[in-house]
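The following block was generated as part of the benchmark described in Methods. Ligand: S-adenosylmethionine.
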Amino acid sequence: MPYSNFNLKAATCEQNALVQKSASEVLLKLISIQENEDVLDLCCGPGNVTRKIASLTDGKVVGIDISEGMVKEAIRSNSDLPNVNYFVKDAENLGFTNRFDVIYCNSAFQWFLNPKKTLEQCLEALKPGGRMGIQAPATAMYCPNFVAAEEKHFVILSRRVLRSKRIQPESSN
Ligand SMILES: C[S@@+](CC[C@H](N)C(=O)[O-])C[C@H]1O[C@@H](n2cnc3c(N)ncnc32)[C@H](O)[C@@H]1O
């Protein structure tokens, strides 16, 4: 889907996306935002989840989205929140350095044209020790990049866990 089509969805996103909404809540629980943490809502859409994030922390919350329509809707619907700012930005060119304790990204990773560059930008934007939570549809058809990254990193992670427990991994390919 071209980015510009998201502009048309800005005002109806919440009603249309029940799966995305329940996934966003699971991801919020998993990432466990603490009360003074600074958070980036990467690809915030119309700001529905950003509002929930802002209720969990007194830190600064920033929402970015490539769609001007989404950002306009986010600003309109969340104008009462003092600790939130929104910007129209491409996730591939964030331009933040050491700014956030948490980066939260729900239902957007599958749209990135260059996921590697986006993740590098996210690493740059995180404070030392910061963490990032990503939720995306994990099917090879919908999101092949995500599935490939998940498989690669899961294997690397499990090897690390095995090594830490002094167990020999089965294969090394
Ligand atoms: C399905 S919506 C999810 C919105 C929000 N995260 C949520 O859970 O309600 C996906 C969003 O990703 C945004 N998006 C896609 N590619 C992007 C990019 N490269 N940079 C920034 N935003 C992007 C779209 O404009 C859209 O608002």
